[in-house]
Structure formats: C-alpha cells, structure tokens
Amino acid sequence: MVKKDSVVSLSYTLTNADGQQLDKSAPDKPFAYLHGKKQIVPGLENALEGLAIGDKKEITVPPTEGYGEFDPKLKLDIERSNFPKDVDIQPGMQFSADVNGDNLIFTVTGLENDKVQVDGNHPLAGQTLHFDVEVVEIRDATKEELEHGHSHGPGGHQH
Ligand code: ZN
User: Fold this and answer.
1) CA of 152 to the centre of ligand 1 (A)
2) Which of 114, 126, 129, 132 could bridge 70 with an S-S bond, Cβ 3.0-4.6 Å?
3) For the whole model, what pTM was predicted?
4) Tens digits of per-residue pLDDT, 43-52?
C-alpha cells in the first residue's frame, strides 16, 4: 500500500483542463518518488495514499493543490542594468531569485528597450491538472533514501 516512506513507481499521463497532454511517463520507465516527502504536488500525493500495486486512478488537482495560483505580481519588468553586462539576455533564459524568502525560478519572457520582462510563476501555475495514474511498484525506502529525502534509481544515487 502507498504510505509514508514508500518508494512508489507510477506510470502516468498529465493533461490540463482542455485535455491537452502536458507530460507522460516513458513506457518502459515508470516515474519513481518517495511518498510523504513533498516530492510531488500535494493534491497528487494525497490521492495516491493507500493505493495498491495495479490500482489505476484518475486524479484532478486544483491549482491550490498543484503548482499554485497564477500570481500577476510575479510578472515583472526589470531594468537591463540589473543583469550582468556580459550576459546576452534572451527570452527563455531562467534564473533564480529570492522573493519574500522563497527561492523562485524566473523565466525571461521578453525584452523591450532597456527593460527585461520576467515571469516567476511556475509554468503550470493556475492550471487544473488531470493525472491518469497506475501504481506499478511499491517498496520500502532504504535508509539512504530516507536520509536524502528522495528516491534513488536501480543504480543507486542518480542525481
Ligand atoms: Zn540521494
């Protein structure tokens, strides 16, 4: 059964509210995570609790239980002079910055004269997520995995 400190392997398909596929596990390589350690979004983790190997479930996760609501205040125009001179700033570039104590990933979305437009929202912020999951494997976490707070692949530590 899926419970705290299990390593759970899932095959899954993730679609948004429009039915658009956003992500999918590889056919021969299920996605593994350590249950109860916030490695996955809370709405998904809570819904998987108690499932057994072979169980299939459709799970709908609202933004508050997923990647958060879209926050327009995280869309900012920053003076070009605040970035290093020798870096060629281009849309799509990412950098991290502390906002009220949280470390957020910002993506450059545009350039206008001496302003750099950035967005600190998660790409899936504000989206209702639909997960179609099947539990492929459940095992107890090793001592090392519990110490690290994440699961390890078949070959040991892989990150
Ligand atoms: Zn590790």
Assistant:
1) 6
2) 126
3) 0.80
4) 999 999 999 9
